[in-house]
Amino acid sequence: MTETLFPPRPAPVVPVTGAAGFPVARIFCVGRNYAAHAAEMGHEVDREAPFYFTKSAHALLQSGQDMPYPPRTEDLHHEMELVVAIGAQARDIALADALEVVLGYGCGLDMTRRDLQAAAKDKRRPWDTGKDFDNAAIIAPITPAADVPALASLPITLSVNGAVRQSAHLSDMIWSVPEIIADLSTLYTLLPGDLIMTGTPAGVGPVRRGDLMEGRIGDLAPVVARVV
């Protein structure tokens, strides 16, 4: 092994219910995967194919930890999402086989510096500073796929200080989990350790210091974080 100048950063690890931890390699995010959310952001739904952006694995924050309000923004938004944990390699995988590579599912928050994202959009620049920053991916413990029956029928909600902000069903997703995996595997070789955040329903909005966020999807472990 080549000697390194300093120790490599360890991979962030997400707990898995009843199993060892899940070391996170990459985080893929699906944009505008709920029609009502696309509409509230002023966009038409693109039904030809999903589109994606990424977050660094080191943007991950464990559920239950405080989220420091990030710098250089005055408009931090919550986006509640289903997270898919990949447990096997997938390249050009068939739609019918896509769920075979899923290790499990979890609740996640795609936190967004909305003002920086909007400024980037206006200048036709990448969204990185609005989407990929410290603590921008808040992930709850993963539930094994075998313990999650009837996934598409599950409700997805996000409350801030006890008041519901987002409420929908996973069946409202434009692109289903198998469709996302099959499509994404034509762009990347998906590998164990990859996470996919599958998009957010309508109702996104700002949070401020002191706000407590709690997101739920059926009986999956909730994602909880306070902004400090």
UniProtKB/TrEMBL annotation:
Gene3D superfamilies: Fumarylacetoacetase-like, C-terminal domain. Pfam families: FAA_hydrolase. Keywords: Hydrolase, Metal-binding, Pyruvate. It is an enzyme of class 3 (hydrolase). Coiled coil: none annotated. Its EC number is 3.7.1.20. One of its GO terms (molecular function) is acetylpyruvate hydrolase activity. This is Fumarylpyruvate hydrolase. Residues 27-228 form the Fumarylacetoacetase-like C-terminal domain.
